[in-house]
């Protein structure tokens, strides 16, 4: 059974002109039928299928890759009941394989590797795999995606080190894109809204905007799902510039986004608006992961005004004071470096801090912290 069940690689319904609708419908029936059989199988057979069936592994890889890309490039959800059903079945497979009780049947019983550990060792599960999972499901099914992610990280502790390695690569890539935009602004013609845009330059702007949007949207999904990974990214300091990832994002938003705006034609600003919203959301989730959550506050993703305090905090009083000190330093720096020189409009030419306030009611959350942590006294440094 394990080797005979065939899964065609996933392809989007209109992803290729070579695939007819009838062929895609047939493939969909094969995918859904086989996934249903897989979900009904006993643990031993499920494990063997996941380990031995290369076509199943390839299907999951292509499904997550294509679905993740479509989620990042569009705000639209799946467009049919059949697509939604396929999404649900794949998510159910992911949750089952991430269960710490699911053991890899191929290994020596003395090893007792979980299925997730074994697939990690075989390089099926990796950081890129997890990025595709959070991009595919992070917004539409946050609770189950967090459960899958947390279980996977628990089964494979080495993944946090992998994220540390990838974080440096990703941040450096974002900095390289930032430099490209700065070069385009300073070299050659500084295009205005009334000038004729150089076609090559326009295409370059589109490409780099697509690259940076893809990364930022993925990271926003990732940080929404995992606070621990968000902290890993923000802890990556640029010692040469004495800055962390949050500072880089603010600099990109306040100084590089205006450059992109000037390089973008008026009728092509939709992608730029999407990028700005993603950057604002990304910033909030970093603040939440590094400061709000560790001192005991929980927010509801569906309600920006929901912000409640629990007794669960990250560490002793000294550690909490250290976190609060870091939060105050960050917020004071945000305020001091965000004074607009002229009247601005939100999500048009406003600084990150103002758009963060509009989108996530930042001042309301800080007021709660001031009243409940500082007993109503204004924020001040902790001595």
Question: Explain this structure to me?
Answer:
It is a single chain. The protein is mainly alpha-helical. It folds into two domains: 21-156; 160-373, no CATH class. Helix content is 64%, strand content 3%. It has 15 helices and two strands. The protein has helices spanning 21-40, 43-52, 54-73, 81-98, 115-121, 127-137, 142-155, 158-186, 199-225, 227-234, 245-263, 270-292, 317-336, 352-360, 362-373, and strands spanning 297-300, 303-309. It has a two-stranded antiparallel sheet with strand order 1-2. Strand 1 and strand 2 form a beta hairpin. Helix 8 (158-186) runs parallel beside helix 11 and helix 9 (199-225) runs parallel beside helix 12 (270-292). The longest helix has 29 residues, at 158-186. The protein is globular. InterPro entries: ASCC2. GO terms for molecular function: ubiquitin binding. It comes from Acaulospora morrowiae. This is 15987_t:CDS:1.
Summarize the structure.
This protein is mostly helical and 383 residues long. Helix content is 64%, strand content 3%.
Write the layout of secondary structure elements.
Blueprint: H1 21-40, H2 43-52, H3 54-73, H4 81-98, H5 115-121, H6 127-137, H7 142-155, H8 158-186, H9 199-225, H10 227-234, H11 245-263, H12 270-292, E1 297-300, E2 303-309, H13 317-336, H14 352-360, H15 362-373
Antiparallel strand pairs: 1-2
Helix pairs in contact: 1-4, 3-6, 4-7, 6-7, 6-9, 8-9, 8-11, 9-10, 9-12, 10-12, 11-12, 12-13, 12-14
